[in-house]
Write a structure and sequence with these properties.
globular; Rossmann fold; alpha/beta; five-stranded parallel beta sheet; 8 strands
C-alpha cells in the first residue's frame, strides 16, 4: 500500500493500546499514543505535563490546543513519511479538523479510522484489571492478558502499576467524556467514508486478526483502483 495513515478510535479500555502495539510490530510504522505521550510528560515534569496532569487525574480531556501541537509535529516528522498509527487522537471534532488540515498540507490523506467497539460492562472489567508498565506503558490484564511474572512487565522488566485514572469514579467520568466529545467522530469519519468498525469483544489476538483482515481488504481495493 502506498502509505498507511491510521487512527484507532474507541472508548477508554476498548483495546486501542493493545492493538496499537501489535499493529506497530506488524506494520513497522511509528505509533503515537497521546495518553502515553502525556503520561511521559507528566513523569518528566515538563510544562505540557504540568498542564495535562490536572485534567487527566479527574478524567477530563486536556485542551485541544495542547494536544494538537504535539501530534502535528509528529506526523510531519521524517519517520512518519510512510504512515503512522494514532491512538487517542483525534478525540474531539476540532482535533479531527486540525488533523485533516495538517495532513492535507502534506499532500496526504488519512487511510482509515478504525473504531474498536466494546460494550460498557466489558470496559469496566477491562479497566479494573488493567496493569500498566511504569517505564514503557506496556499494557497487561490480570485475567485476560497476564504478565509471565506477576507485577513485572514482560517487555522491559519494570514494575506494573494501576493507572491513577483507572479508579472507578474517574473511569465513569472518562466514559461520559467519550460519549459527549469523541463519539461524534464516528459520524465525522463515516461521512469521509474512512470509518472501519471492528468487533472488539474477542480476545486480543482475534481483534488483531480482524484488523489485519480489514487492512488487507483496503490494500486489495487500492490495488484494483490503480
Ligand atoms: P489514554 O491513555 O488514551 O486513555 P483512553 O483513551 O481512556 O484509553 P485507555 O488507555 O484507557 O484504553 P485502551 O483503549 O488503550 O485500552 P487497553 O489496550 O489499555 O488517555 C488518558 C488521558 O489522557 C485522557 O483521559 C485525557 O485526559 C488525556 N488525553 C489523551 N489523548 C487526548 C486527546 N487527544 N485530547 C485530549 N486529552 C487527551 O486495554 C484495556 C485493558 O483491557 C488492558 O488491561 C488490556 O490488557 C485489556 N484488553 C485489551 N484488549 C482486550 C481484549 N480484546 N480482550 C480482553 N482484554 C483486553
Amino acid at each position: 500500500m502506498s502509505e498507511l495513515n491510521l487512527i484507532l478510535i474507541g472508548s477508554p479500555g476498548s483495546g486501542k493500546g493493545t492493538q496499537g502495539e501489535s499493529l506497530q510490530e506488524d506494520l513497522r510504522l511509528p505509533y503515537y499514543a497521546t495518553g502515553d505521550i502525556l503520561r511521559a510528560a507528566v513523569q518528566e515534569g515538563t510544562e505540557v505535563g504540568r498542564q495535562a496532569k490536572e485534567y487527566m487525574d479527574r478524567g477530563d480531556l486536556v485542551p485541544d490546543e495542547v494536544i494538537i501541537g504535539i501530534i502535528s509535529e509528529r506526523i510531519q516528522a521524517e519517520e512518519a513519511e510512510d504512515g503512522f498509527i494514532l491512538d487517542g487522537f483525534p478525540r474531539t471534532v476540532p482535533q479531527a479538523e486540525a488533523l485533516d488540515a495538517a495532513i492535507e498540507k502534506l499532500g496526504r490523506r488519512m487511510t482509515a479510522a478504525i473504531l474498536i467497539e466494546v460494550p460498557t460492562d466489558e470496559i469496566v472489567k477491562r479497566l479494573s484489571g488493567r496493569r500498566t508498565c511504569e517505564q514503557g506503558g506496556h499494557v497487561f490484564h490480570v485475567d485476560f492478558d497476564p504478565p509471565k511474572r506477576e507485577g513485572i512487565c514482560d517487555v522491559d522488566g519494570s514494575a506494573l502499576i494501576v493507572r491513577d485514572d483507572d479508579k472507578p469514579d474517574v473511569v465513569q467520568k472518562r466514559l461520559v467524556q467519550y460519549r459527549e466529545k469523541t463519539e461524534p467522530l464516528v459520524g465525522y469519519y463515516e461521512q469521509q467514508n474512512i470509518l472501519q468498525k471492528v468487533d472488539g469483544t474477542g480476545g486480543p489476538d482475534d481483534v488483531a486478526e480482524h484488523i489485519r483482515g480489514l487492512l488487507a481488504t483496503l490494500k486489495r481495493e487500492e490495488e484494483m483502483e490503480m
